[in-house]
Design a protein that fits this description.
mainly alpha
């Protein structure tokens, strides 16, 4: 029987691969960053606050500035700068011996994260035909999860042998892990320059004389008409997905499991392992299953699955210890399948919510919404645990999660309204066979 030819590795696949390498580096340091900094005599808990607070502030500031449209760097150049800043920032953190030196390194990390997050979506979009968007973003999400998981495992083995004395070297390894991604963005930027050099003078002039280009420049920083109802609901969905979804799995679920359900700490690691395994093994299947439906349908599926996962947690809280263990593991599986539906649907949906030239700006807004949701979500969960009832926490999260369906329903209606009518006809993005 003849064998089918192997699929050629595209630049999109290469970019996803090196993105996975960089998240492997992140997995090396994130589980031990707070522990390492708080254990240094010159820093303590103040060092932890400076690291996370300073990075979050720099990240959100970067996203806000890019969202205004006043600064419009090419996405590939933005990604290149972001990865270099991350490398410098984590090298500085590895060498930091005082709060002052840490304070100097942290802005590089925050700004670098903001630039990289904003750049990745438009770069991936420019390198991917529309019919392949879902599979490309799904593969990237899988690579990120696998990279983080493997990095955490390697970090655990390393610190098991060498204790926290190895953590500074893990920071160095993390810094170096961004360099392949830097090179990938450099290659994409070089390709863009070659294409720009080959464009005729008339084509270059047309970029600045189209009606929508004039509108974009006049509206930059002053009005938000470019975003429209569709883009606004997409950003609101991202905020809610991190407020009531992702951050709750990462922060609140372990808190409820240990403090309110009497589950051992080892189960927390098992939940994370099961979640990562399901995403890695199930992402392709879920993407294929949803490929015949629109992206909004995929996001509805994600919300319903997250709500179901919370309901499973609530139901298992009434049972004996074995039932609680089984319920939490089932919670992790169902939640992970919801993540698979989210990852292959959200960014294609976000890209379609605005005109092609505004994808970078809406990505910046979505990145800011993600940052706010990630920072504020755990506080919501912690406040709910004050009730002292696991069932109350799970059901409250399920109720909040269902609110996301409102943004999906309203967004569909908004795309058919006047806002869509006065939008200039979009020019298709040329496909180059590359992807991120």
């Amino acid at each position: 029987m003849p064998r089918s030819p192997a699929r050629r590795l595209t630049a999109a696949d290469a970019l996803i691969l090196v993105n996975g390498v960089s998240t492997f580096g992140s997995g090396l340091v994130y589980p031990y960053t707070a522990l390492y900094l708080s254990g240094m005599p010159a820093m303590g808990t103040a060092g932890v606050s400076v690291f996370y607070g300073g990075a979050a502030a720099a990240n959100l500031t970067t996203a806000a500035v890019l969202a205004t449209g006043r600064i419009k760097p090419p996405p590939a150049l933005l990604g290149l700068a972001g990865t270099l800043m991350l490398a410098v920032g984590f090298l500085g953190t590895a060498a930091a011996g005082s709060l002052a030196t840490l304070l100097a390194a942290v802005p590089f990390i925050g700004c670098g994260q903001g630039c990289l997050l904003v750049a990745m979506v438009p770069v991936l979009n420019s390198l991917t035909p529309q019919e392949q968007r879902r599979s490309v973003f799904a593969r990237r999400y899988r690579a990120i999860n696998v990279g983080l998981g493997l990095g955490a495992v390697v970090a655990g083995l390393t610190t098991g042998f060498f204790a926290t004395s190895a953590v500074p070297w893990l920071f160095v390894c993390n810094a170096l892990s961004y360099l392949p991604l830097t090179y990938a963005f450099h290659r994409v930027r070089a390709r863009e320059r070659r294409e720009a050099a080959g464009a005729t003078g008339a084509e270059r002039a047309a970029q600045f004389t189209r009606p929508e280009a004039k509108e974009r420049w006049s509206a930059a920083g002053g009005r938000w008409k470019w975003l429209g109802a569709a883009g606004a609901f997409a950003v609101l969905f991202q905020l809610g997905a991190y407020l009531f979804g992702h951050s709750q799995f990462e922060a609140t679920a372990p808190l409820v499991a240990v403090q309110l359900m009497g589950i051992g700490l080892g189960t927390v690691s098992a939940l994370l392992l099961v979640n990562t395994a399901v995403v890695a093994l199930g992402q392709t299947w879920v993407t294929r299953l949803l490929s015949r439906r629109d992206e909004a349908y995929g996001l509805r599926v994600a919300v319903v699955l997250w709500t179901t996962a919370y309901a499973v947690g609530a139901a298992s809280a009434f049972g004996p210890l074995p039932v609680r263990y089984a319920g939490l593991l089932l919670f992790a599986v169902v939640f992970a399948i919801g993540e698979c539906a989210y990852s292959c649907s959200f960014h294609p949906w976000l890209i379609d919510s605005v005109r092609p030239q505004d994808v970078t700006r809406v990505s910046a807004l979505a990145g800011g919404a993600m940052g706010i949701g990630t920072a504020a979500g755990p506080s919501i969960g912690a406040a709910l645990t004050l009730t002292g009832e696991a069932t109350a926490v799970w059901l409250s999260l399920a109720s909040f999660c269902l609110l996301l369906l409102l943004t999906l329903g309203r967004r569909r209606a908004a795309t058919k309204g006047p806002a869509a009518d006065d939008t200039p006809e979009q020019t298709p993005v040329p496909h180059t066979g590359e992807t991120t």
